Protein backbone atom coordinates (compact mmCIF):
# COMPACT_ATOMS: atom_id res chain seq x y z
CA UNK A 1 0.00 0.00 0.00
CA UNK A 2 1.11 3.56 -0.62
CA UNK A 3 1.49 5.97 2.29
CA UNK A 4 -1.78 7.65 1.28
CA UNK A 5 -3.64 4.32 1.12
CA UNK A 6 -2.21 3.26 4.49
CA UNK A 7 -3.48 6.44 6.15
CA UNK A 8 -6.90 6.04 4.52
CA UNK A 9 -7.11 2.44 5.71
CA UNK A 10 -6.41 3.54 9.29
CA UNK A 11 -9.23 6.09 9.05
CA UNK A 12 -11.67 3.57 7.52
CA UNK A 13 -11.78 0.45 9.68
CA UNK A 14 -15.36 -0.38 8.66
CA UNK A 15 -17.00 -1.10 5.32
CA UNK A 16 -18.77 1.85 3.74
CA UNK A 17 -18.47 5.50 4.73
CA UNK A 18 -16.41 6.26 7.86
CA UNK A 19 -16.60 9.68 9.57
CA UNK A 20 -13.41 11.51 10.54
CA UNK A 21 -12.55 14.13 13.14
CA UNK A 22 -13.36 16.87 10.62
CA UNK A 23 -16.91 17.77 9.61
CA UNK A 24 -17.60 17.19 5.92
CA UNK A 25 -14.68 14.76 5.49
CA UNK A 26 -15.18 10.99 5.30
CA UNK A 27 -13.23 7.95 4.13
CA UNK A 28 -14.92 5.15 2.18
CA UNK A 29 -13.82 1.51 2.25
CA UNK A 30 -15.17 -1.15 -0.09
CA UNK A 31 -13.74 -4.66 0.05
CA UNK A 32 -15.56 -6.37 -2.79
CA UNK A 33 -16.43 -5.86 -6.41
CA UNK A 34 -19.58 -3.80 -6.85
CA UNK A 35 -21.55 -4.37 -10.05
CA UNK A 36 -22.81 -1.39 -12.01
CA UNK A 37 -25.80 0.13 -10.28
CA UNK A 38 -27.54 3.46 -9.68
CA UNK A 39 -26.64 5.81 -6.83
CA UNK A 40 -26.43 9.54 -6.15
CA UNK A 41 -23.10 11.28 -5.65
CA UNK A 42 -23.06 14.32 -3.38
CA UNK A 43 -21.34 17.61 -4.13
CA UNK A 44 -17.69 17.08 -3.19
CA UNK A 45 -14.11 16.09 -3.97
CA UNK A 46 -13.05 12.43 -4.10
CA UNK A 47 -9.45 11.23 -3.90
CA UNK A 48 -8.68 7.52 -4.33
CA UNK A 49 -5.88 5.96 -2.30
CA UNK A 50 -6.34 2.45 -3.69
CA UNK A 51 -8.62 0.66 -6.15
CA UNK A 52 -10.83 2.16 -8.83
CA UNK A 53 -14.41 3.24 -9.44
CA UNK A 54 -16.09 3.61 -12.83
CA UNK A 55 -19.00 5.97 -13.37
CA UNK A 56 -21.63 5.82 -16.09
CA UNK A 57 -23.48 9.05 -16.81
CA UNK A 58 -25.85 9.18 -19.75
CA UNK A 59 -23.66 7.75 -22.54
CA UNK A 60 -20.37 8.72 -20.89
CA UNK A 61 -18.03 6.42 -18.98
CA UNK A 62 -15.09 7.55 -16.87
CA UNK A 63 -12.87 6.19 -14.12
CA UNK A 64 -11.44 7.76 -11.02
CA UNK A 65 -8.49 6.21 -9.23
CA UNK A 66 -5.20 7.12 -7.58
CA UNK A 67 -4.13 9.03 -10.70
CA UNK A 68 -7.44 10.85 -11.21
CA UNK A 69 -9.48 12.73 -8.61
CA UNK A 70 -13.21 13.24 -9.14
CA UNK A 71 -14.97 16.52 -8.39
CA UNK A 72 -18.76 16.66 -8.22
CA UNK A 73 -19.73 20.32 -8.43
CA UNK A 74 -23.41 19.38 -8.05
CA UNK A 75 -25.12 16.26 -6.67
CA UNK A 76 -25.58 13.81 -9.56
CA UNK A 77 -27.44 10.52 -9.97
CA UNK A 78 -25.04 8.15 -11.74
CA UNK A 79 -24.39 4.46 -12.18
CA UNK A 80 -21.27 3.23 -10.40
CA UNK A 81 -19.06 0.12 -10.68
CA UNK A 82 -16.47 -0.61 -7.98
CA UNK A 83 -13.23 -2.55 -8.55
CA UNK A 84 -12.02 -3.92 -5.22
CA UNK A 85 -11.29 -7.09 -3.24
CA UNK A 86 -10.59 -8.18 0.35
CA UNK A 87 -6.88 -8.11 -0.47
CA UNK A 88 -7.08 -4.69 -2.14
CA UNK A 89 -10.08 -2.68 -0.91
CA UNK A 90 -11.01 0.54 -2.61
CA UNK A 91 -10.21 3.53 -0.36
CA UNK A 92 -11.57 7.00 -1.08
CA UNK A 93 -11.19 10.30 0.75
CA UNK A 94 -14.49 12.20 0.41
CA UNK A 95 -14.43 15.95 1.08
CA UNK A 96 -17.53 18.16 0.90
CA UNK A 97 -17.16 21.36 -1.11
CA UNK A 98 -17.51 24.31 1.26
CA UNK A 99 -18.87 27.19 -0.85
CA UNK A 100 -17.57 29.77 1.66
CA UNK A 101 -14.05 28.41 1.23
CA UNK A 102 -14.45 28.16 -2.53
CA UNK A 103 -15.72 31.73 -2.82
CA UNK A 104 -12.79 32.95 -0.69
CA UNK A 105 -10.24 31.36 -3.03
CA UNK A 106 -12.05 32.59 -6.15
CA UNK A 107 -12.01 36.19 -4.82
CA UNK A 108 -8.26 35.96 -4.25
CA UNK A 109 -7.70 34.47 -7.71
CA UNK A 110 -9.80 37.26 -9.19
CA UNK A 111 -7.67 39.87 -7.42
CA UNK A 112 -4.62 38.30 -9.07
CA UNK A 113 -6.37 38.08 -12.47
CA UNK A 114 -6.35 34.27 -12.44
CA UNK A 115 -10.00 33.62 -13.36
CA UNK A 116 -10.30 31.90 -16.77
CA UNK A 117 -11.38 34.50 -19.33
CA UNK A 118 -13.39 32.10 -21.50
CA UNK A 119 -15.39 30.61 -18.63
CA UNK A 120 -18.83 31.25 -20.12
CA UNK A 121 -17.78 29.57 -23.36
CA UNK A 122 -16.43 26.49 -21.58
CA UNK A 123 -18.57 23.37 -21.08
CA UNK A 124 -19.96 23.31 -17.55
CA UNK A 125 -20.90 19.73 -16.64
CA UNK A 126 -21.62 19.01 -13.00
CA UNK A 127 -18.40 17.05 -12.56
CA UNK A 128 -14.83 16.83 -13.78
CA UNK A 129 -11.86 14.48 -13.46
CA UNK A 130 -8.60 16.11 -12.34
CA UNK A 131 -5.31 14.29 -12.98
CA UNK A 132 -3.53 14.11 -9.63
CA UNK A 133 -0.24 15.97 -9.28
CA UNK A 134 2.60 15.70 -6.79
CA UNK A 135 1.35 18.88 -5.09
CA UNK A 136 -2.17 17.45 -4.84
CA UNK A 137 -0.91 14.16 -3.40
CA UNK A 138 1.11 16.07 -0.80
CA UNK A 139 -2.00 18.04 0.20
CA UNK A 140 -4.03 14.83 0.52
CA UNK A 141 -1.28 13.18 2.55
CA UNK A 142 -1.02 16.10 5.00
CA UNK A 143 -4.81 16.18 5.46
CA UNK A 144 -4.88 12.44 6.15
CA UNK A 145 -2.08 12.86 8.68
CA UNK A 146 -3.97 15.64 10.46
CA UNK A 147 -7.14 13.53 10.54
CA UNK A 148 -5.37 10.93 12.68
CA UNK A 149 -5.56 13.36 15.61
CA UNK A 150 -8.73 15.13 16.84
CA UNK A 151 -6.64 18.17 17.85
CA UNK A 152 -4.69 18.40 14.59
CA UNK A 153 -7.89 17.94 12.59
CA UNK A 154 -9.49 20.82 14.49
CA UNK A 155 -6.43 23.10 14.27
CA UNK A 156 -5.31 22.45 10.68
CA UNK A 157 -8.13 20.60 8.95
CA UNK A 158 -9.96 23.52 7.37
CA UNK A 159 -6.73 25.06 6.07
CA UNK A 160 -5.72 21.74 4.49
CA UNK A 161 -9.14 21.39 2.82
CA UNK A 162 -8.70 24.94 1.52
CA UNK A 163 -5.35 23.90 0.06
CA UNK A 164 -6.97 20.93 -1.69
CA UNK A 165 -9.58 23.20 -3.26
CA UNK A 166 -6.82 25.50 -4.48
CA UNK A 167 -4.93 22.57 -6.03
CA UNK A 168 -8.05 21.44 -7.86
CA UNK A 169 -8.73 24.94 -9.17
CA UNK A 170 -5.28 24.74 -10.79
CA UNK A 171 -6.40 21.68 -12.76
CA UNK A 172 -6.86 22.14 -16.54
CA UNK A 173 -10.41 20.73 -16.22
CA UNK A 174 -11.53 23.00 -13.37
CA UNK A 175 -13.90 25.32 -15.28
CA UNK A 176 -17.00 23.77 -13.60
CA UNK A 177 -15.53 24.50 -10.15
CA UNK A 178 -15.00 28.16 -11.05
CA UNK A 179 -18.49 28.25 -12.54
CA UNK A 180 -19.99 26.97 -9.29
CA UNK A 181 -18.71 30.02 -7.42
CA UNK A 182 -19.61 32.73 -9.94
CA UNK A 183 -23.28 33.73 -9.81
CA UNK A 184 -23.74 34.54 -13.50
CA UNK A 185 -22.68 31.15 -14.89
CA UNK A 186 -24.98 28.46 -16.25
CA UNK A 187 -23.76 25.90 -13.73
CA UNK A 188 -24.32 28.12 -10.68
CA UNK A 189 -27.87 28.88 -11.83
CA UNK A 190 -28.64 25.19 -12.36
CA UNK A 191 -27.07 24.42 -8.96
CA UNK A 192 -29.62 26.78 -7.39
CA UNK A 193 -32.42 24.82 -9.09
CA UNK A 194 -30.90 21.52 -7.91
CA UNK A 195 -30.84 22.79 -4.33
CA UNK A 196 -34.56 23.53 -4.67
CA UNK A 197 -35.22 20.01 -5.99
CA UNK A 198 -33.35 18.41 -3.09
CA UNK A 199 -35.36 20.44 -0.59
CA UNK A 200 -38.76 19.88 -2.25
CA UNK A 201 -38.53 16.49 -4.04
CA UNK A 202 -41.49 15.21 -1.99
CA UNK A 203 -43.72 17.94 -3.38
CA UNK A 204 -44.98 18.82 -6.85
CA UNK A 205 -42.02 20.36 -8.72
CA UNK A 206 -42.71 22.04 -12.08
CA UNK A 207 -40.02 22.78 -14.66
CA UNK A 208 -41.47 26.25 -15.26
CA UNK A 209 -41.10 26.98 -11.54
CA UNK A 210 -37.45 25.93 -11.60
CA UNK A 211 -36.76 28.03 -14.71
CA UNK A 212 -38.41 31.05 -13.14
CA UNK A 213 -36.40 30.54 -9.96
CA UNK A 214 -33.14 31.05 -11.87
CA UNK A 215 -34.48 33.70 -14.28
CA UNK A 216 -34.29 31.57 -17.43
CA UNK A 217 -36.79 30.65 -20.10
CA UNK A 218 -38.00 27.02 -19.87
CA UNK A 219 -36.19 26.08 -23.10
CA UNK A 220 -32.89 27.69 -22.06
CA UNK A 221 -33.18 26.16 -18.60
CA UNK A 222 -33.77 22.70 -20.07
CA UNK A 223 -30.63 23.00 -22.27
CA UNK A 224 -28.45 24.21 -19.39
CA UNK A 225 -29.84 21.57 -17.01
CA UNK A 226 -28.98 18.82 -19.51
CA UNK A 227 -25.45 20.21 -19.95
CA UNK A 228 -24.81 20.17 -16.20
CA UNK A 229 -26.54 16.94 -15.14
CA UNK A 230 -26.81 14.86 -18.35
CA UNK A 231 -30.52 14.47 -17.47
CA UNK A 232 -33.71 16.38 -18.11
CA UNK A 233 -35.19 18.09 -15.02
CA UNK A 234 -37.97 15.47 -14.82
CA UNK A 235 -35.51 12.56 -15.13
CA UNK A 236 -33.29 14.09 -12.46
CA UNK A 237 -36.22 14.59 -10.07
CA UNK A 238 -37.35 10.99 -10.58
CA UNK A 239 -33.85 9.63 -9.83
CA UNK A 240 -33.57 11.73 -6.66
CA UNK A 241 -37.00 10.55 -5.47
CA UNK A 242 -36.15 6.90 -6.10
CA UNK A 243 -32.71 7.18 -4.47
CA UNK A 244 -34.22 8.79 -1.39
CA UNK A 245 -36.92 6.10 -1.34
CA UNK A 246 -34.26 3.38 -1.28
CA UNK A 247 -32.58 5.08 1.69
CA UNK A 248 -35.89 5.25 3.55
CA UNK A 249 -36.77 1.61 2.82
CA UNK A 250 -33.41 0.36 4.07
CA UNK A 251 -32.93 2.70 7.04
CA UNK A 252 -36.40 3.26 8.43
CA UNK A 253 -38.26 0.11 7.32
CA UNK A 254 -41.33 2.08 6.29
CA UNK A 255 -44.23 0.62 4.31
CA UNK A 256 -43.90 0.92 0.55
CA UNK A 257 -47.01 3.08 0.18
CA UNK A 258 -45.79 5.45 2.91
CA UNK A 259 -42.39 5.80 1.24
CA UNK A 260 -44.04 6.44 -2.13
CA UNK A 261 -46.08 9.28 -0.66
CA UNK A 262 -43.12 10.71 1.23
CA UNK A 263 -40.98 11.03 -1.92
CA UNK A 264 -43.73 12.59 -4.02
CA UNK A 265 -45.57 9.76 -5.75
CA UNK A 266 -49.38 9.82 -5.81
CA UNK A 267 -49.57 6.21 -7.02
CA UNK A 268 -47.75 3.48 -5.08
CA UNK A 269 -48.16 1.15 -8.09
CA UNK A 270 -46.34 3.62 -10.36
CA UNK A 271 -43.70 4.07 -7.68
CA UNK A 272 -43.13 0.30 -7.45
CA UNK A 273 -42.84 -0.03 -11.25
CA UNK A 274 -40.34 2.80 -11.56
CA UNK A 275 -38.37 1.62 -8.52
CA UNK A 276 -37.97 -1.87 -9.96
CA UNK A 277 -37.00 -0.50 -13.37
CA UNK A 278 -34.34 1.75 -11.80
CA UNK A 279 -32.86 -0.59 -9.16
CA UNK A 280 -33.69 -3.97 -10.73
CA UNK A 281 -35.50 -5.03 -7.55
CA UNK A 282 -38.88 -4.31 -6.01
CA UNK A 283 -39.27 -1.91 -3.06
CA UNK A 284 -40.23 -4.91 -0.90
CA UNK A 285 -37.04 -6.79 -1.85
CA UNK A 286 -35.00 -3.67 -1.10
CA UNK A 287 -36.60 -3.27 2.33
CA UNK A 288 -35.80 -6.88 3.27
CA UNK A 289 -32.06 -6.55 2.54
UniProtKB/TrEMBL annotation:
InterPro entries in alphabetical order: Homeodomain-like_sf (IPR009057), HTH_AraC (IPR018060), HTH_AraC-typ_CS (IPR018062), Tscrpt_reg_AraC-type_HTH (IPR020449), Tscrpt_reg_HTH_AraC_N (IPR009594)
Keywords, in A-Z order: DNA-binding, Transcription, Transcription regulation
Coiled coil (UniProt feature): none
Domain of life: Bacteria
Protein name, entry field: AraC family transcriptional regulator
Molecular functions per Gene Ontology: DNA-binding transcription factor activity; sequence-specific DNA binding
HTH araC/xylS-type domain: residues covered: 191-289
Lineage, broadest ranks: Bacteria, Pseudomonadati, Pseudomonadota, Gammaproteobacteria, Alteromonadales
Amino acid sequence: MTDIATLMAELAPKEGVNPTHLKGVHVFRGSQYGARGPMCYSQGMLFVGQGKKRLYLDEQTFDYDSQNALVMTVPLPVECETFASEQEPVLVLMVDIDLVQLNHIIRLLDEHHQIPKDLNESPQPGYFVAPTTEEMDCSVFRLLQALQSPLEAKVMGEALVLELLYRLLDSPNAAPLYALSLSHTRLSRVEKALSYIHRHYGESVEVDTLASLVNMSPSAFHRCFKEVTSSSPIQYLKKIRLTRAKELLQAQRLKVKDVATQVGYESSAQFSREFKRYFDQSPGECARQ
